[in-house]
Amino acid sequence: MHASQTSAEARLWQALRNRRLARWKFRRQHSIDRYVVDFVTLDGKLIVEVDGVTHSGPSEQVRDKARSNVLEACGFHIVRVSNADVYDNLEGVIEMIESTLGTD
Description:
By secondary structure, the protein is of the alpha+beta class. The protein has one domain: VSR Endonuclease (Endonuclease, Chain A, 3-Layer(aba) Sandwich). A four-stranded mixed beta sheet has the order 1-2-3-4, with helices on both faces. It is globular and about 35 Å long.
């Protein structure tokens, strides 16, 4: 299941795993409803999706929106970050995730 993980996802996982982000326990490639999400903290009800260029087209955006609607109906908040953000601003991505969790 983890074989499809991108290198950006692997980099973000290194920052999230083993409760490295405050006290939050993250899981990667976790099934929720009929989808497999990149990262999730079940306690924080937060899903983090890492999107590459394949998510920029109109049909992909429609598919992502439908997916988000289902996951939000399950009680989760979703944040999306780009591969470029993970590579160029990992610290900022971590801060955004942490502040999102802090306000819930």
